[in-house]
Each structure stands twice: as structure tokens, then as C-alpha cells.
## 1
Amino acid sequence: MVKKIKFTFLFFSLVALALVVFSFKPAPEPTDAETIKRIFNEALTNGTSYSNLDYLTNKIGARLSGSMNSLKAVQWAFQAMKDAGADSVYLQECMVPHWERGDKENAKMIFDGGKTAIQVSICALGGSVATPADGLIAEIIEVKSFEELSKLGKEKVAGKIVFFNSPMNPNHLETFDAYGEAVKYRWAGASEAVKYGAVGVVVRSCSLKEDDYPHTGVMGYKDTLHKIPACAISTKGARILSENIKANKNLEFYFHMNCKTLPDEISYNVVGEIYGSNKSDEYVIVGGHLDSWDLGTGAHDDGAGVVQSIEVLRIFKALKLKPKCNIRAVAFMNEENGGRGGEKYAEWAKINKEKHLAAIESDAGGFTPRGFSSEVTPTQKEKLKSWKPLFEPYGIHNFDRDGSGADLKKLQETGVPCLELMPDSQRYFDYHHASTDVFSTVNKRELELGGAAMAALVWMIATHGL
Amino acid sequence: MVKKIKFTFLFFSLVALALVVFSFKPAPEPTDAETIKRIFNEALTNGTSYSNLDYLTNKIGARLSGSMNSLKAVQWAFQAMKDAGADSVYLQECMVPHWERGDKENAKMIFDGGKTAIQVSICALGGSVATPADGLIAEIIEVKSFEELSKLGKEKVAGKIVFFNSPMNPNHLETFDAYGEAVKYRWAGASEAVKYGAVGVVVRSCSLKEDDYPHTGVMGYKDTLHKIPACAISTKGARILSENIKANKNLEFYFHMNCKTLPDEISYNVVGEIYGSNKSDEYVIVGGHLDSWDLGTGAHDDGAGVVQSIEVLRIFKALKLKPKCNIRAVAFMNEENGGRGGEKYAEWAKINKEKHLAAIESDAGGFTPRGFSSEVTPTQKEKLKSWKPLFEPYGIHNFDRDGSGADLKKLQETGVPCLELMPDSQRYFDYHHASTDVFSTVNKRELELGGAAMAALVWMIATHGL
């Protein structure tokens, strides 16, 4: 009897154990939609991108390549990636240009041979030479295009200052399309005008808003040509200058700048990495550029992209997401006036024979994300578009646009699928390269949504390939 | 011979005439896509909504129903609709509530029986009674919900001030969804708390941003219950108050407000009309509300909607578009604390037996338009969605959401298809009902795109029905 009881007890115990064991089925893997929801919730509830941007812009500030501040930003990014939980953080050394604005920057329209004058807001374009030590004064003529300049020819241009006054076209929905058309006068205005003997150029700021803040940005010279000083005038200044040129025959213009180019400096990309679960040499990278122009504090351009990229690492760690491949956040140096950081990154990727599944940059401002542009094969584009239903609940609906980040150019040339976060672009050129690009113009949620969008896309590519 | 020449001449003349006549084929009608492109270009190039909003907010300012400013706004809207080219402009009289904030509004946490105190930012909720003449002082208790309040019961609530501290949920993509959950404490907090003997309520401001600006908004009493004073505390103040309640047993709170409700006043909706080509009694209307809260200057809420609606008229006139039905812009009075203007409009529509093809309100801020929400039949929803390809080039991609403007409620109840412009909602509650809702927070292009989106939808409905 005892035996039977024991057997019965043993039998039922085994059955119970079996039931327990079999009922402990592992929880089903979360769907991509569930993971993406967790990513967005994490960004919107516990996000650190906004406080990081506060520090970068308000405690460090402007950080043009070669400046002391840009090195402080490197140190900060290193620590911020560690704090985000990166498995490894390191620097990539690169040489960068070093241009300084100086402390003199003013301009005026001169009437009646100097009897009266009206000041206008200008700033030196990045890379410009200085004016003579006591400034430059000459008659000013206005042109709307290079064609018009060419028609005027040497006879009408020689010895004068050329004013390029080509407004951005407001009819483009995407303001970057208008920028693409207008920016050539900033980049090449000086080298085109000097061909006809101009002594200086004034370029209308690339902005769709009429205000009194000049917008800087990089300009270039041709080695074979004489270098003449180049400044940007505010959009309001451009209107006033244009009106006065029309009203005053032979109007003179004066501007004074003591900017200068110094020898190249050592600087760094900052790279933070999360190791993938399959220990492969495959990478998905996210990035923004750490350098900024010197007028504002580079909040949208491109503090936003840097803190969003660091946020991607933080989100993966906070949610304990295990990507198959390695995830990297890259804070590129020197996007604004040289692109040396992007080149250096691509160089190292080649040397190390790293396989990049994709590279995603955020360099279009910390506004509500609307989609991703891409430079990919048609098949990859279709794959991206097939993920649209996963992103639409977060207002991200546009995967059609071509293009990717400037820092990814060299990587893209080696065949890496390159993408860029596409935020709403309406406000971007109100701030771009101007003293108005500051922290207070960034909305916390808009910034956080951009970081979450990048993390979600990284998750999809790391999980499913592209 | 003469005859033959004459005949030949006549013959060839007739042939030539026929050729000329038949070659003057009328130009083909522009496609809807072409008309919509013209509408957007007109708004972005020659738009007047931004300068109108500048005037309404900066020259007139806040315009709560019943105030002198609200009547100035009526006069202004009348003239602005005339200037936009309306064929007819008229007023619709309605009686509106008249509540005034008064000139006393302050609050503090009181420690150790009054030895020390810390000020916090509050404002009276719209419609609240005043505190006693020298303010109200009582122990304060915090609750997160009505359920929690009910559990505390009379024993713990009687004689105290109740602090409703239910933050908006940041995880909703559409901030209006978070508002919808949180706003009940503002509306019903006082009438719920008084059931348990509370002497006053402090309600956390409906905002997703932590800052020191309290947000007002309408609250309601129940006629059968005692009326206790109700104020909103800034989100930063809410955090500090909550921390201090936790750290200090029996913390006391003091607030002082001398707001009051005066007799109803006469006011007006302003209606501007463009006559349709088929002289029917059919209407498509666009609208926003002219009244605003008194803390800011009602730039987003809802100056934006008013100037966009007026812009719809201007665009139709400037482009010489000939809608088949009549188009009306309506500047509704009293959306914020009564909805009397919307009721009056629906009343007149019924009396005059007007057939409304659709009514579109803009009352969610002057931000980049993302879509239109609607209260329509499934068939109408499908028709709206079939137009999506025409709107997507302008970033307008969402026609799925249900809902429409508060001013259209009564019209909607009579079966009119009602819609609302759906701008990007991320920033809205940073400004909503607070002193921060001012002109400088509105971006010109974003505002213009919203007006263009409304004009384009009006065109589609007027041309194809809904």
C-alpha cells in the first residue's frame, strides 16, 4: 500500500512537473511594431537628447572646426556616449581647417560721396579673406544671377562690389530645394565675380524669412584666381540695399572684416559603439556633425543630429534591445567647412574592411520627423517603403525622397546605403547658420521624435537587413 | 472674270476665317492638381495671413468674449474680409458670457504655520469664482485622479484645497489625445472636489512642457453645488508643489484671485462670402474663432484659424477661381467659454435653410498642416482619402482621423460633413491658453501652408461635392 501510494505520488508529481515545464513556454518575440512603440515611448518619457542639447549649446556653445570649443565638444561627446551606455567609445583623428571670424564685422551704404551712410547687417562668409585693414569701399551693383553678371561683363563690374540678390523661392514645399538653388551664390559668388574684376561680394542670406540676422556658411575660392572678401547680408538688409541701389545712381558700399585662415588643426570624430549579438563586422551607423558655425550655438545645425544619434545608443541600452549587428553613433567633425571628418570615417571603414549595412545621418534640424531620404538601390528603396506602415503611427510617412547626409558622401561612394532623417523643413532656414540657431528654438518632443525615428529605423535594418 | 475672282476671294476668306475661328479653341480647363499648385504658390508668395495675424495679435491683442478687445476684433475681421475681396460681409449677433480675470492672482506654499512661504505661478481658470477678498488658505492634498479623490472621501478632503496633478501622457503622438485625457480635471475638478467638502482646487496646467507659465481654460460648476475657486498651476509649479507636499506633512497653500462673472454681453460672428457661379443656396464654409483667452494674444488659438479662413477668400479672389457654390469664411465668437457663436451660426443656417456641403474649421494652431480630421460618412471619408495624392505634394497625408472643430458641433449634429485642419501638434500645448501664445511663435510659412490647404480642400469640395 505504501509502495502504491509512493508510486502514485511520484506519478502525479512527474505529471505536475511536466505541466509546469511545458507551461513555461518562452514569451513570444515582440513584433517590430511593439519594439518600435517601446522605442518611441522611451524617447518621449525618459529621453535625454533635450538635456544633452542644452549642455552642448548653452554650456559649450558655438564650435567651429579648429576652435577650442570644438575640442570641448569632442570631450563632451565622448562622455555623453559613455553615459548613454556605449560598449566602446573612441576618437578618430583628422586635420581640419581653422578659420576665424575676427572681431570686426560691419557694413554701410554710403550716399553722396560719404555725406550720409546707413548701416546694414552683414557677416563674413566662412573661408573669406579679410577686407583691407580699414575696410573696402566701392560702388555696388546688384545682380540676380551668374548669367546677369556675365552679361554685364568686365566693363560694368571691374572695380565694383557685386551684390548677389537671388531670394530663395518660397514656392518649393521642401525648403532644402530652394536652398539648393540659392546657395551657389554664397559658394561661388566671389570666384565668379572676380573674373570680371569685382573687388568684393555681398550675398543675400539663404533664408526665407525677412529679418535682420545675416546667415554665414562656407564659400570657396579658386586657386587660380585672386581672392576677394565675401560677406552675407541679412534678408532685410538685402531688401533695403536693393531699394537704395535702384534709388541712388552709383551707390557706394563699405564693409570691414578681419577674418582669417590659420593653419589646419588636429581634431576628432567621436565614435560610440554597441556590440551586436552575432559579433560580426557588420555595422549600422547613425550620426550628426559636432562642429557648428560660430554665430549661434548650432542647436538645429547640428547639435540636434548629434544628441539624437547618442540617444539611439541610449534607447537600445535602456530597452535592452539586442541588435544582431553592431550599432555606431558617430559625431562627425568639420561638416560645415571641409567635410574632413566624414572623409576620415570612410577611410577607416575601408582600412578596417567594415561592412556597413546602412548609414543614417540627422543634419536637417531637430523638427518633427516626416520621413527618411535615401541614396540606395531601387530594391532597397522598395524595402524601406514596405516599412512605412510601421512608421506612419508616428507621423513618418515619406520614404520617397533621394539624398543623404553630407558626412556620408564618401561612404556612399563606396556603395553603402546612405539615408538622412527628414524633419519638417519649414522653419529650418530661419535659423540655419545664423545667430538665431539656439537651444530655445528647439522643441523637446520634436527633437525626441527624431531620435526615436532613427532608433526605430536602425532596429529594422539591424534585424532585417536592407 | 471679276465675278470669279470675287468668288475665289470670298471662298478663301471664308476658309481663312474658319481656320482662325477653329484654331481659337478655348484653353483646356486646368486640372485640380494645377489649381492646387496655384493656390499654394499664391499663399506662399503673396499671402496676407501672417500680416493679418500680426495686426490681430499685436495691435488688438487678447480678446476674450465680452471684452472691449473682442469687439475691436469683430470690427477688424469685418474689414479684413472686405479687403480679402469678399462679395458680402455681415455680422451675426449673439449673447456671450463675460468673465474677467481681475488684477489679483498669486499663490504660495506656506511652511511651518506661515514662518516661510514659496511663491508658485498660478492663474484663475476661466469661469472660476474669486477667492475670499484676502485670499484662501488651507491644507493642500494631491490626487492624480477622480478615483483617488473618491477613495480619500470627505474625511480626508473636507476643508482642504485639492491639487489635481495628472500630467499629460507624453506617449501619445497626437498631443490632443493627451489633452483629451487630462483636461477633465480642469473642467470638472472643482465640482468633483466640492462633493467631498474641498474649499478650492489647484489644477496642473495642460502642457507637455515643464515651464513656469500657467495655462488657463474654461471650467464648469454644477448648479446644484457650492462654487469653489479653481486655479491652474504651471507645470514647473506642479512639480515643486508635489515635492513639497511629499516632504511637508500638512502643507498649507494660499491663493488669491479676484476674477468675476459679469452679465452676458452682445457680440458677433463675422461672416464673409464669395458668391458661387451657380447662384445656389449651397455653401462650403471655413472658419476659426475670433475670441481668445486673455493671457497671451491668441496667436495659435485661434488667430491662426481666423486669418487662414480669411486667406481662403483672398486666394479664391486673387486667382479668379470660380467656385460653383458659395464660399464662406466665418470668424466665430466665444469658442473658448461658451460656444455661443457656433450655436448661433447653426441656428441661422437652419432658419435660412442653407445647404452646407461641408464645414472646415482651423483651431489647432498655425503649424505645418498634416491632414484633415473629419466627422463624415464612410463614403465621404473614402472620397476625402481618394484626394490624398493631390495633397501629398504639400506634406498633407492624413485623412484618417475622426473629429472636427468645436464651433461646428451644432452644424455637425444637423448632418453637415464637418472637418478640421490638422496641423503638426507637437508644439501646440506649449502655448495653448498661456501667456506664451503670441505672434512670435508662429512661423509664416507654416501658417500660410495651413491656409492654402484649406483653400485647396474648399476647391475640391466646391468642384466635386463630398
## 2
Amino acid sequence: MKYVLILIAMVSAGLAQDELATLAQQRGLKPIPKEMLAAAKKAQASPLVQLGKMLYFEPRLSRSGLISCNTCHNLGLGGTDGVAAAIGHKWAANPHHLNSPTVYNAVFNSKQFWDGRSPNLEDQATGPIQAGPEMAMPAELAVERIQSIPEYRDLFQKAFPEEKEALTFLNIGKAIAAFEETLITPSDFDAYLIGKSDALSEQEKKGLDLFVSKGCTTCHNGPGIGGSMMMKFPLIKPYKFADLGDFKGDANGLTKVPTLRNIEETAPYFHNGAVWSLNEAVKIMGETQLGIDLQEAEVEAMVSFLKALTGEKPDVRYPTLPPSSKSTPRPDPS
Amino acid sequence: MKYVLILIAMVSAGLAQDELATLAQQRGLKPIPKEMLAAAKKAQASPLVQLGKMLYFEPRLSRSGLISCNTCHNLGLGGTDGVAAAIGHKWAANPHHLNSPTVYNAVFNSKQFWDGRSPNLEDQATGPIQAGPEMAMPAELAVERIQSIPEYRDLFQKAFPEEKEALTFLNIGKAIAAFEETLITPSDFDAYLIGKSDALSEQEKKGLDLFVSKGCTTCHNGPGIGGSMMMKFPLIKPYKFADLGDFKGDANGLTKVPTLRNIEETAPYFHNGAVWSLNEAVKIMGETQLGIDLQEAEVEAMVSFLKALTGEKPDVRYPTLPPSSKSTPRPDPS
């Protein structure tokens, strides 16, 4: 604690910029690797990613023909839908009152879904397509719809040139995942971590220092600033909105630690979307996970830091989707 | 008829290309004006159009926070939703079983909506936002939501620099309309009309010739290839799917003639979306509006021509929407 106070004093005096960045990295906060950004940018024009982008925006992958990945993971809204619990096919609310996690930087998650049941993006992508309260589309029908559209047959062949049968449900997931892997968002915080010491304001640095010193980095770490582990929630004190929804975590009762990148854009918060204010969310995290009562000024500073995690979004040209053919199974919104 | 036969013979012989283009123009088929295309391209970067694009993709303009203009007028799907009757707030189907018309080239419509009740795009845009079965958003609440987002306040000021109170419901409509005015899609047919005689294949020219000679241009004319008038439907013989929905047309029982641009991409067809096959739609039009029984080969040729109306879509970068603030009224999907 003494060390922290000294550090805050040093930061306030503008002396410890490099030390704070170094400390943050030592505590596990990592910038988005430059090579990954370059690779993502390069991949954008590839046949696989272009196809994945089309499928990401493709409402015909849903039974109704109206819901796409982008409906709940809206690239314009921080990669989420902005409602507490996801709404899907026939306006069904998520049966466990689960909040849609952001797709941005989801590539950094070691597991996908709140209960971590999926090991990677390509597996994850095939879940909501089939889930009854989401896109409600049987896998065979999804393939049949896409297969019935001649342009898609060509595009799959180009995206998976080695495969004789390129248009499969697994490859739909692979293509969507390849697009999602390009959705990474470097922020001012990344610039700061890699040496641009004035990329964060004094208030943001104060927040970063608190974020590190209070112990948030125990769970929110890595290039995703989260997403790297499963954790008990609540851990120390009860979560006051625990009765909203019936989510019980994974087999061990653990919940995935979400990324904090773009958190400013992804209210409401927590797995059940119970909390709309980022300040309140930070305060609750202090209580439930760290057993501390954060002061208002501390919360303000930490929120300032969290807002510095809002990143630059990749350019996404809205795709033109190929028309259905005579043999395309019709959408079924009923 | 004799003239037509001669013309067909001439087209088949590859002799009458210029004459056919001239005839088409004489019968009222017009290319998209070059100046309009240039203006649309130029306008894309303007503060007004950029704001309009954001609002077009803005689901927070709906009560639920989940439905945007783009939900039913999907820029990836020919500017439509691909279902028979529009689905809106809480999964309500359009109460009159009306099909969502395309937003592409809607600027060429002399009136908006199937019953032509709206005089222009800026007026039209404010309708579905408020309509109960569509976005279900009271105008005041729409303004309150947008007003609560600081970035939007700035963007409205920049888009409407002359106005003291820039953020109004009318200006929301104006901005959306300004974006929609840029959604025009030049096609091979335009290239043909303005002198590129090989821009259409022989089969497409045969279809164009039939389109002109059979009388389709009586209603489907102008740069929108439709959209310029209200017409009785059915006119001569009954429409076999007339019992689907209860649409009765305008005060005079007339229905808006839709644009045929991008018609390949906008199934299902007619005001009630009853017909999924473009071939069948053409055949029905022949019967109901012209009282003629088109032969299969004629229908095929006309459909080939209609597919040459599929145009190049403008580049639309998916917008990043500004985050809600503490005072933003919450979405209400319930």
C-alpha cells in the first residue's frame, strides 16, 4: 500500500510514467501484438475473411431470415446489442437472462461463452445459429440455404481451396471465426504500454495505477484485458443482482472473466446485464471480487482508465449478399 | 406487333442496338443521371450524410433498441428484408401483410409507401420509427435518446449548422433521407442506355425489347424503372393472391408502382410479398396489368433483362455508433 501511495504521488508528479507502464505489463496487462494487428489488416482482403464477413451479416443463417450474428454482436455498438438479455428468434429472451458478450477482441478469449463451454471462435459461431432462442436454425438447413445460392458455392470453394466439399456447417463457423479474428481494436492504452507515455491523461494513469494496485489485473489481464480465465463470481461478498437469471457458471460454478476492451460501449454489464452504469459496475467488482469499498474518486479514475480501452474499430464495408435462388429454402419467421 | 416482330428480328441480327436503346428512352426508360451519381458520391463524406448513415443503422431509434432502418431495408439484401411481410417490434408482422420495399433508388419514387401517403424520403423515414408494429418509438423518446448522447449532439450541430436547435425529430428524418439519397445503383442497363451497346447480352436485349413492346414501360419508367406513379392493381384480370393481407391501396384504391432496379435481389414480390419467383411475378404482371399470357421464353428473356437492372451498390462503411450516456433512456424490448 505504501508503495502504491508513493507511486500515485510519482504519477501525479509526472515522474513515473515508464514505471507505471512497466508495472502494468508485469502485472499481466499486454498490448495487442503489433504482428497480430498487421496480420488482421492483411487478412481482411482474403477470400476466407471476406466470406466470413458476409456470413457474419447473413440473416438467412437464421430460421426467420431476419437475425444475423451482427444482430446481437452489433459492430456499431461495441460488438454487443445494448440490451440486458439477448433477444432472438420470435423475440425470445435468453432463457438464462444472459447478456451478449462483445465480438471485438473475442479472439483473445481462452474460452467462449459465459460458461466457457466453447474452446474457440469457430466452434462458438456454430452455437447461436442453432440455438432455439437465438437464430433457431438447424445446421442442415443452414447449409442447404447457403448451398442453394450459387455465389456462395463459389466463395466457399475459393475460401477453402483444398477441400472437396467446401460448403459445410463447420466451414461456416470457420469463415465467421476468420472474420471475427480481424475484429481487434487497439486503444490509447496500447499506445501507452508500448512507450507513448502521453497517450494516457493523468487521470487515466491514476485509474490504471488503481486498477493494477487494487488487484483487478489478477483476472483482467493479457492482451484482452480479460478473457483469459474462468473465475468465481461473486467471490468474496454477494452480488446484489444474483437473482436475475439462473446462470450458474460452468461445471465448477465459474464464470468467464470478460474482456474490458471497449467496455464503455458495452453496457449493460455482467453476465446478466443487470448493471447499466460503468461506475456502479466497478464498485460492485471491488466489493464482490476484492472485498474492498472503492471511493468515488477511485471509481472515477478507474472508469477514466477503462474508457482509454475504447479502441479503433477496423473498417468494415457492409457486404452485398448474393440473392437467393429458386431452390433456396424460404425464411420462416412464423 | 408487326413492328415489334421486325424489331426482334433486327435485334437478333445484332443490327438494332442503338434503335432499341433509343426506343427504350422514348418509352420513358431513363438512366440514372450522371450528375446525380457524382453528387451522391460527393455527398457521402458530408456531415449530414455521415450522420444519416449512423441513424440508418441506429437500433436505439427503436423502442427495443434492437431494430434499425437497416433491419427491414437491409443494404446487404437489395435494401429489403427478404420476408413476405415485415417483422417489427416484439416480432409483430405488418398488420396489412405489406412487404418492405427496397431503399435503394427510393429517391426516384415520386411518393413513398405502397399507398403513396408520404411525399418524400425525409417524411417517410419518420413513419416506421413511430409505427407500433415497426420500431414502436414515440418521437419525443427518439429525440431524448439521441439527445442524451453527447457525440450525436455535436454531429447534429455539424450537419445542420444553420439551426439553433439542430437535434429534432424532423432533422432525424432529414439526415436519414440524405443518406438514402446516396443509395442509387447504376447497372448494366444504364450503361446500355447511354451508349455502351454491348453492355447487355442478346438475351437481355430481347427481354428489354419485350418489356418495351408489351407495355411494361407504361408504368415502370423513369430513372427508377418504376416509382413514378400510382396504379390500379390488379387492372385487367384478378390477382390470384389478393386475399393475402388487407391492403386496399390509397384513397383511390391505387398502389405505388415499385422500382424494378435490383428486383433480382428483392424477392418476395408484390405489395403483399406473395410471390417468390421472379418468373412468376412477370407472368402475373402480364395477366393482371396487360391482360396478356406471356410465353415461357418471353418470361425468361424479360427476367434476363430485369436481372440487368441489378446495380452496383455504393460503398458503405459500417458506422461506429457513439455509446449511450448515463441519462440515455434504456432500451425496452419487453
